[in-house]
Design goal:
By secondary structure, this protein is an alpha/beta fold. The protein is built from seven helices and seven strands; from the N terminus they run αααααβαβββαβββ. This is Transcriptional regulator GfcR.
Length: about 200
């Protein structure tokens, strides 16, 4: 129960610092539904049963540039293995802000590829219908290029799907998705293979 109380406290703290639900979900590596439940629970309101979710804390990796480097090498190895099957080269590594950025930049360096940055629409308090995330103009271009998408955790797959759709609309070719932890347990999203260091499987 202490872990739940810690998560509630962290969610409330992040909200008081101005983060919106999607950003809190990213920071705690849980779903938006779980964030809503945590914030409701913090107010001592009668809450619905806890959603089926798993919080992922990878701060022991994130606080060390050395560990991030080693993890990025492992992710590069998985990307190369995936792309070898189709004899495809990596042109651009796309880091999903914010947690995918450190790994993606290290991977781009290792793979000799460009680096691009994707800002998800999750960072907005209210997502307007048809509103999309964006590829930052300050980094690499993706049009016509083979792209590998890098994030820390896949929870529902909605952000990954958003990135894939946006890349395709820009004329890019998403070839693989690599993450530290896959909580969704899918082999593919929108016909793009997913590779993860850890896959969480719920036994119901």
């Amino acid at each position: 129960m202490k872990n739940i109380e810690d998560l509630i406290q962290k969610a409330v703290e992040l909200q008081s610092n101005g983060l919106v639900t999607g950003q809190i979900a990213d920071e705690l590596n849980v779903s938006r539904e779980t964030v809503t439940w945590l914030l409701t629970r913090s107010k001592k309101e009668v809450a619905a049963p806890a959603p089926k979710d798993i919080s992922v804390n990878w701060s022991s990796i994130g606080k060390s540039a050395t560990r991030l480097h080693y993890i990025s090498l492992a992710l590069c190895d998985m990307v190369l293995e995936t792309l070898e099957k189709t004899n495809t080269e990596v042109d651009v590594v796309v880091g999903v802000a914010a947690s995918g950025i450190p790994l993606a930049s290290m991977m781009a360096n290792e793979l000799g590829a460009d680096f691009a940055l994707y800002h998800s629409r999750k960072g907005q308090d209210v997502v307007q219908p048809g509103h999309k995330g964006t590829i930052s103009r300050n980094f690499g271009s993706v049009a016509g290029k083979n792209c590998v998408i890098v994030d820390d955790v896949i929870t529902t797959g909605s952000t990954t799907m958003e990135v894939i759709e946006q890349l395709r609309e820009m004329g890019a070719k998403p070839r693989a998705v690599v993450v530290l932890v896959d909580k969704k347990g899918a082999d593919m999203i929108a016909n793009v293979p997913i590779q993860s260091l850890v896959r969480i499987v719920r036994l119901d």
